[in-house]
Amino acid sequence: MCSPAFDSTALSVHTVRTPLRVHVYEFPASVRYTCALLCPTETETIGRPVMKSRDIRKLFIEFFAERGHVQLPSSSLIPPSNDPTVLLTTAGMQQMTPFFLGLEVPPAPRLISIQKCFRTVDIDEVGDESHNTFFEMLGNFSVGDYFKKDAIRFAWDFLTGVLQIDPARINVTVYPEDDEARGLWQSEVGLAPDRIYDDPSNIWGPVGDSGPCGPDSEIYVDRGAQYGCGEPDCGPNCPRCDRHLEVWNLVFMQYFQERDGTRRELEKKNIDTGMGLERISLIMQDVEHIYETDLFMPVIVKAAEIAGVQYGANERHDRSLRIIADHTRAAAFLVGDGVLPGNEGRNYVLRRILRRAVRHGRLLGIERPFLNQVIDVVAETFGDEYPELRSRRETIRRVVTHEEEAFGRTLAAGIARFDALADELRSRGATTVPGAEAFRLYDTLGFPFELTVELAHDAGLEVDTEGFQRALEAQRNQSRAALKEFADSGRERLPLYAAAKGVPVAFVGYDNATTDATITDIFSADGDVAQLEAGQSGEVVLDRTVFYGESGGQVGDTGTISTETGVFVVHDTQRPTPHIVVHRGEVREGFIRTEQSAVAAIDFERRKSIQRNHTATHLLHRALRIVLGEDTQQAGSLVAPDRLRFDFTSLTPLGAEGSLRVARIANDMVISDAPVVIFETSHQDAVARGAMALFGEKYGDVVRVVEVPGYSAELCGGAHVARTGEIGPIIILSEASIGSGIRRIEAITGAAALDYIATLQSVTQELARSLRTPVEHLPQEVRTLSDSIRERDRRIDALRLQLAAADVDSLLAGAVSVNGSNVLAVRVDAENRDTLLQVGDRLRDKLASAVVVLGGQVGDQPALVAMVTRDLTARGVHAGKIVQELAPLIGGRGGGRPELAQGGGSDISRLDAALASVEEIVKRQISG
């Protein structure tokens, strides 16, 4: 098979031979073919040979290995849990970040990787010839070893020496202030000065408010005049054409940026580079766009074969084939790394691309499930480099098939409903799909909102996004109430639980945090079901579990139940009858079915906090009886991870002194680090040993005793610590009456108690130092200070009003007349946008009929505000459109309503020039 770089000329037939069969594909005759792109063996080349992507990978690894680099395997597309900033891995640098920050020691100072990456920003654009989601990033990295000189030399030698790209085709961009890089490009590789371009955007980082950062240099390859615009200034980043393709970015991490924006030189400087395999393959295979490389063509060819169409014969079909190829390729890698379809985050990204691929299959006339056939091609094409695609192929197929079948059942109905809605809207002259209607499609038919937007665009309609979001939030509130519905209807559901196949459930959670299990039963709000999909709430019963069902005051465990095809998040665990444990929650990813094998895992840190609080209630119970008398009885309790609550009988308040005594007794037992002994015995024997039982509670013949030898013993089925020292401090927060003869203690333990102590200590000491007063005098000092601040605020507000009035009068002199209308565009001193808006309001009111555009510096960024009086909006002047033209001039964006708009940017040096262009913009709007 061949990679086409074609025009719309006559078609010719070409035959591709593989070891198993002969494929015949029809492409335009003008295409340069290289059968080696697709055929693993017995290939025949028509035209000049090209380099396969797998060869580029191999050469890249070998080149840098010869120069002392150690290859790291690609990290997962799922970022590590300590990186909450991204949904998915987007660059090769992500797995290197701990090395650059000094958090981990790298295996070597010189590293390379070929990293799987996924970027979500271009999903809606996929279908054209340049955008894609999943890609491979080739990168070389230096952790405090070599710097700019070697990074530039390595890149140049690889491109021109190994890949043999003509040096005359290469241009680069540098950060304008990076004279070192500019000089190295000339002295090290001999690049002419006129092929080195300044680009102010060539600065990288930091990620967040502070961190490593530095200038970068981008390498471009000239694809030839046939791809150009013909203008004399055409070069890298040309806005008119794609002649110059960026293939490699070299980032020189030489600074550390502080939170205040200042930068200091790093003692050890780092190198981070990235070269997209898809782009360099385009260059090496001499094709028009990435979809004609061997990274996509096998997948496109398979999809075209299934659809019975020819790639290159119809642009509408080609667009659908490109979408299927990109999205199916991406989906295979996502599922291979453990992502499952769902309704949030990365799970929804997967669901979205799969559904989009299914829809475009339907547009090609494919009415049956077909994605698995394409998945097989992806697995074979990339399986050598990424073995997980083969080892997890069956799982990938199951997940994809399930999602395709589920969505396929609703797609036709959704499209039919949308078409009817669109016809109805057009018949009455409406141009916007109401948010409630878009949500109805989503809620009743499972029709994705993005698909509604896409169909609306094709039909020339807008969609009320805000209305959709309001309806969606209302539905989410209802979903949150679903679990409460289960709880509220618990008694009515008892016959359902009694008929569960998994009864009795074995509880193995006293000594284990995880266990293998089998899903025996699944219940929805309406009854038993065979499976649950992502986003659906329900109840799951396992044959064995580590989840503690709420009882005895101890709350139920949370955690996850994971199967091969889905993840069920457990929000609560209940024991509605003695023989069944019900896990309540929702499917976060994929789907789950009865009879599936599963791994049940509790949130162990949460459980440990619960255990600390539960044992603490036993210590407090005994301490209360010591202080108040042996007739004091437990009247209820709540044992949660963040707090404990203990209700007890008493006719008199415990009081501050009594609370201190109780806390001291309980904490003495914590300090003693006494063992907590748990054993089972007969009820009669337990009572004989002095174990306390709750009044009115029913116990079986065999009971569980929790004992702190020499201090307390209680009948209890809950989870506890092994020794009292594990509890940490016990702090009583409050003691109060909750009813006649019933009082309540609320307390915290462990880390929560330590945090509470530290906060109190820090706050009181800092206040005392700041106010220069003893801690015991703080309340009165704070009251005095508060009164003083309120008085000063009143005076400051009055002064600001006076200053604003004075500024307005002086600024009015800058107004000019444009076609008989007042136009005022000036720069003002403003600490924030509110000040800009306030000054703008005063100027507009003074001028009565005017266009007012103000610029100012807010922090270190330029800011814009535009205001237009209503009489001029009627003449066509639009504040939002004014800002839309001005904001790019200062390196930013903006917009708004006809009467008021705002914008911002990154280049404060260009603010005055932007304001100077306002007069001309207004003139065009009035004339137009």
Beta-strand segment tally = 36
How far apart, in Å, are the first and last alpha carbons?
A: 54 Å
- How many distinct helices? 25
Strand residues, percent:
25-35%
Overall geometric form: globular
Q: Which range best describes the helical content: under 10%, 10-25%, 25-40%, 40-55%, 55-70% or over 70%?
A: 25-40%
Structural class: alpha+beta
In round numbers, the mean pLDDT is 87
Low-confidence stretches: 1-48
Main sheet makeup: 9 strands, mixed
- Rg, Å, rounded: 35 Å
Describe the protein's topology.
Layout: E1 11-17, E2 22-28, H1 53-65, E3 70-72, H2 97-100, E4 110-118, E5 134-143, H3 148-162, E6 170-174, H4 179-187, E7 196-198, E8 203-204, E9 211-222, E10 244-257, E11 263-276, H5 277-285, H6 297-307, H7 315-336, H8 345-363, H9 371-382, H10 388-391, H11 393-427, E12 432-433, H12 435-445, H13 449-458, E13 462-463, H14 465-488, H15 494-498, E14 506-507, E15 514-524, E16 527-529, E17 531-533, E18 537-542, E19 544-545, E20 559-562, E21 566-577, E22 580-593, E23 597-602, H16 604-628, E24 634-639, E25 644-649, H17 655-672, E26 677-682, H18 683-688, E27 702-708, E28 712-715, E29 730-739, E30 742-749, H19 750-771, H20 778-811, E31 816-818, E32 821-827, H21 833-847, E33 850-858, E34 861-868, H22 870-873, H23 879-886, E35 893-896, E36 900-904, H24 911-916, H25 918-927
Parallel strand pairs: 3-4, 6-7, 12-13, 14-19, 32-33
Antiparallel strand pairs: 1-2, 4-5, 5-11, 6-9, 8-9, 9-10, 10-11, 15-16, 15-18, 15-23, 17-22, 18-22, 20-21, 20-23, 21-22, 24-25, 25-30, 26-27, 27-28, 29-30, 31-32, 33-34, 34-36, 35-36
Helix pairs in contact: 3-4, 6-7, 6-9, 7-8, 7-9, 7-11, 8-11, 9-11, 12-14, 16-17, 20-21
